[in-house]
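Chapter summary example.
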Amino acid sequence: MMIRRFKPGLVALLLTACTTPQERAISDFCEREALRELPVDTIIVPVTRPIYVGERVVGARRVCKTRERQVAKDDKGRSEKLTETVCTDEPVTKPIYRDVLVQEPMDRNQGPRASYVGLCRRQAIQQGMFADVKAR
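The structure predicted for these 136 residues follows.
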């Protein structure tokens, strides 16, 4: 099973699309507080990533196409239809990937900051923060 990784901005956009003004205000407040308490701490880490390098032929599949065409008229004015079937072997390929060590930036505080935001949101909702915020 493959786990997909989504960009945090996209996830935040999807989550805030159906929220109330109070929830948006709380999220903005908590994210600012988390960033103030746990600033971005970027380090460069070596990571192995699969890189596409080409394709390998693993077999072939026969593809047949049938077409009809009219042959010239004979001396009595009749035309004949000729049916032709042309078959070709098309290669079946499989992608080839090679693992390559690359350097990628990573924020060491991303996990703790996300936990801080979650805790802050729960506490802010329990305390009724930004309850007076109205929709624009």
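To summarize the output: The CA atoms of residues 63 and 88 lie 5 Å apart.
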